[in-house]
Amino acid sequence: MQWFKHDTDAATDAKIKKLVMRYGADGYAIYFHCIELIVGNVSEHNITFELEHDAEIIADNLKIQGTSDTSPVDRVNQIMRYIVSLGLFEENNGHIFCYKILKRLDSSMTSSAKMRAIITSAKQSHDKVMISHDSVMQEENRIDEKREEEKRKETPDKPAKSPKHKHGEYKHVLLTSDEYLRLCEEWGEPELLRMIKELDEGIEAKGYKYKNHNLAIREWKKNSRGTPIPKHSLKEAPKCPKCGKKLSALFCDNCMIQFNSQLEEL
Questions:
Q1: Are 208 and 166 members of one domain?
Q2: Residues near 179 by Cβ (< 8 Å), separated by ≥ 6?
Q3: CA distance 60 to 64
Q4: How many domains is the chain partitioned into structurally?
Q5: Which stretch, 131-135, 138-142, 229-233, has highest mean pLDDT?
Q6: 3-state helix/strand/coil string of the chain
Q7: Does the residue 91 lie in any domain?
Q8: pLDDT band with cut points at 50, 70 and 90 for residue 179
Q9: What whole-number distance in Å separates Cα of residue 24 and Cα of residue 165?
Q10: Residue of 177, 224, 175, 178 lying closest to 198 (CA atoms)
C-alpha cells in the first residue's frame, strides 16, 4: 500500500497523549513510523499487519538519540513496550502487529482490482467480527469462561502468570511488564537499565542462574557501587527543577522534559 488515512486530530487521542507525555516527540514519531512500515508491507501476498522491522532499524531510520544510560535501540524498545501496554499495538510471541490499520484501509487506496477485492473481503470479515451476532459472541464468551474455570479448578492455588519479556544485550534478564514498571518507579528508568545491563552481563559471563530475576536484580542493586537510588521518598514523587511540578516516571508533562535519576535533562 502506498498510503493510509491519518486523522488530523490524532494527537488528541487519549492513548497518544499518554505516549507523548511519557516519551515526547520520539514516542509520536516511532508509533506512526511503525504504522507506515506495516502499511508499506501490505500487499496481495501480505495482509498480516505485522511489523517486520526491528528496533535497530527503526532507531536508525528516525535517528533516535540515546543517552549516557540508554542506547537508541534500548529507547525504541522501551517505547514499543509502552505502545503495546497502551493497546495501540498487539504483541504475540515477540512479534508486533497492528490490526487496527484494517479500519483505515479502503478500496480507493489502490488501483489493483485484486487488492481492492482483498481489502473489501478483509473489511467485511473484520466488520462481522466487530459487530458479530450476539449469539455467536455469547457462545465464544461462554466457551472461554468454561476454559478459564477448568484452568482454575486444575490449579486453584496458582494465579495466572504474566508473560516475561527479555531485557539486556544478551536477553538474559526476564521481567514482566508490571515488574519493569514498578522498578522504573522506584529507581528511575536510567538506573534500571544500568542494573539490567550489569545482571545481563553477569549471567552471560559467569553463567549465573536465577529463578526470579525481579528479586535477583534487587539483590544486585544492594551490592552495586554504581549510581545510587534517587533519595526521594517513594511516597512523594520528585519535582521538576524548572516548574516545581511533581514528576511522573521522571517526566514533567508541564515542561515536556524527561529527566534522569539525578534530575538532569535528557
A1: yes
A2: 214
A3: 7
A4: 3
A5: 138-142
A6: CCCCCCCCCHHHCHHHHHHHHHHHHHHHHHHHHHHHHHHHCCECCECCCEECCCHHHHHHHHCCCCCCCCCHHHHHHHHHHHHHHCCCCEEECCEEECHHHHHHCCHHHCCCHHHHHHHHHHHHHHHHHHCCCHHHHHHHHHHHHHHHHHHHHHCCCCCCCCCEEEECCCCCEEEEHHHHHHHHHHHCHHHHHHHHHHHHHHHHHHCCCCCCHHHHHHHHHHHCCCCCCCCCCCCCCCECCCCCCECECCEECCCCEEECCCCCEC
A7: yes
A8: very high
A9: 24
A10: 224
Provide long-range contacts, Cβ within 8 A and 24+ apart, for 131-134.
none
Q: How many C-beta neighbours within 10 Å does residue 162 have?
A: 11
End-to-end CA distance of the chain: 37
- Residue 57 CA to residue 79 CA, distance in Å, equals 14
HSE-CB at 105 with a 13 A cutoff on CA atoms is: 30
Mean pLDDT of 235-241: 73
For residues 181 and 196, what is the distance between their CA atoms, to the nearest angstrom?
A: 13
pLDDT tens profile 70-86: 899 999 999 999 999 99
Residues 248 and 210 in one domain: no
Give buried/exposed letters for 63-98 (b at 16+ CB in 10 A, else e): ebeeeebbbbbbbbbbbbbbbbbbebbebeeeebbb
Cell of 114: 485484486
Q: Say if residue 210 is in the same domain as residue 240.
A: no
Q: Phi then psi for 149, rounded to 5 degrees?
A: -65, -40
Cell of 126: 473484520
Range of the domain at 249: 231-266
